[in-house]
What we know:
Order of helices and strands of chain A: HHEEEEEEEEHHHHHHHHHHHHHH
Order of helices and strands of chain B: EEEHEEEHHHEHEHEEH
Shape of chain A: elongated
Largest sheet of chain B: 6 strands, mixed
Structural class of chain A: alpha+beta
Number of helices of chain B: 7
Oligomer: heterodimer
Structural class of chain B: alpha/beta
Strand order of the largest sheet of chain B: 6-7-8-3-9-10
Shape of chain B: globular
Strand content of chain A: 5-15%
Strand content of chain B: 15-25%
Largest sheet of chain A: 4 strands, antiparallel
Amino acid sequence: MSAATVDERADDEVVEILRQTMPLQVARDDLLRRIAAAGRRVHYEATQVLYEVDDIADDLYIIVSGEVRHTLGPGAHAKEPTKVLKAGDVFGWAALLEKTPRRLARAVCTKPTEIVRIGGETLLRVLATDADVGDVVMSRFATMISREFTVPDLADQLRRIHRKMHAKDIQGMNLTLYRMSLWLKSPRPYLMLIGFALFLGFWYLAVEVWKLPRFREMPGITAVIKEWVSREPTYGLSIYTDEYYKHIWVSVWRVTQAFVLATLLGVPIGLFLGWSKKFKEYVFPVFEVFRPIPILAWVPLAIVMFVATESAVIFLTFLASFFATALNTMLGVESIDESYVRAANCLGASRAQVFRHVILPGALPFIFTGLQISIGVSWFSLVAAEMVSGQYGLGYVINTSYTMVRYPTIVIGMITLGAVGYVTSALVRVVGDYLMQWRTRELALGGR
Amino acid sequence: MDATALAAPSAAVSSAVTTRGAIVIDDVVKIYDPDGAAVMAVDHCSLNIEAGEICMIVGPSGCGKTTLLNAIAGFHEITSGQILLDGEVLCSAEKPKAEPSSDRIVVFQNGALFPWKTNLENVAFGPLMQGKLNKTDALEKARAMMADAGLAGVEHNYPGEVSSGMRRRVEIVRALMNEPKVLLLDEPYRALDSLTKSVMHEALLEIYYRNKVTIFFITHDLEEAIFLGHKVAIMTTRPCKPKKILHVDIPHPRDYSVLTSKRFRELMEETNDAVHEEALKAFAAGEKEG
């Protein structure tokens, strides 16, 4: 028989003992096996002292055979100070407490004794590999400690299992950064780069190398980039001209106004649509008639209604955003599980409190989905509006460049629009993550 | 520092006699009337639950047990009859819907901890909403109660970050924060695996021995019912009313060794037929509807 099989058998024996201990009953075999493997077997003679009160508590002890007398010091306020421990008993779990723990008892072998010792740190590390079970194990330890002793706060000192990557200790912006670092470590950013490279490569080949008929009039990638970074652009628009930034600024400002307005009106109206059946009966049918009307169909009316072009553009941009926000907010309220409202009622919350503490936070995930859509459609409708009227803005750039045959500038406008749009929607997401940490943390635990 | 009592818990039973939380369900009828097709969910149901008693309501899924719980909690109306709590009428034919209140707190089947609040904020929610405690005191009391229930260390986690067994315990502690007269549990352990379930049973008993409240516990698991309850009411399937009431004479405090005791087996045998018969009826009814 090889040494390995002896070890395995010995481990089996330890696994069996571990399984019978109260905190580890919930652990699965593979976890128990890892714990057993982390320990080391030591033989002690009778009368040998294992530790004294106030020794540094490093290891947890599991008796395989023999007998140990365990006497708690007066500081422990134990309900029964002296105990005789036999095979299968576990002791010395001061090793699991926080801050250089000290022994609260004296342990002496009364017979020749076989013991498995596991370092407190090591055990915590092993438990942390299975965070769900690990948490339960540690909370059972806490229950045991509070049952055995009257030392205040001892259970509080029990070290917590830090879940995967400490997500629970990360707050707010750090969490966003943390998710960003996770993202950078994953293959996704590199796949994304490959995707971009393929697209740009195709553009280059199609227009400038193969000169495909369909792309004959298309500006090539090199022409666009040359124009974009030129100090003296042929068609008057590049990153070195103030004009370029003015267009961006005007568009961003219009979208901001429209988006803020849509949010300020859309969220409360959506909340009331979801909250009050009666309000919904009045308002929702009107909503459903107006919502599918494409934004371009509103252009003539908008120009008639608003004398100033600027207000007309903002109105058109606002309109689509508003419907997206209000509708999603309403769905958010309706999606809230009835038992949350009932639980709040049981716990004595008034109608206003239910609204503030249940409806609003409960609908928040949907509200932010709505805002994501809203910011997207606001750019969409902005460009439509700017193409029809206005003197500045990215939509205006694209449209006038077309009529004036400045093809590279069209593409510059498009790419800028895409980039700015992406940034604004990322900002909405960051704000959402910040406001819904409970959700972000759950997602982070799932490694997303 | 050490533990020998790694085996079964043996919490001391408090000698305090509970006098609050007696429920009388008196001839309650509940008829749902969807589109004029009157469906009788609860049929002249009468049941007495004494103060501080654990009363287990056993019946197959969909038999109308939850309707009864909803009537006590004040979520649904009753059609006739009355329900009394400590002699006061909660609901009757004149006032068909009870007022939800913090003296009768429900622990929901799928759990209803607010996922957007930390465990601690959840536990402190009741007294804060009722204005009974200020924020500091409420959080302090919540922290102490969580530590008592072996939940130290997860206060600042959100419910979604802890195991489902732990979530259930947090929810029970959240209810107990309000010193309710009655805890209404609606199959709270249904979704848990059997190992976690067994842990939860002992944890619930431990909590019960410390805070004697009346427990109205709905389940479809007979073993769970006999293990936990003083009284087990086996319900008939739709319409729901007690078919058989069993007084479990196994003394409290109980621990897991009860499950293998002779008396426990006897009680199981005594009631198993009644439960099985109702389950068959429920199954047959389901077939017909399907």
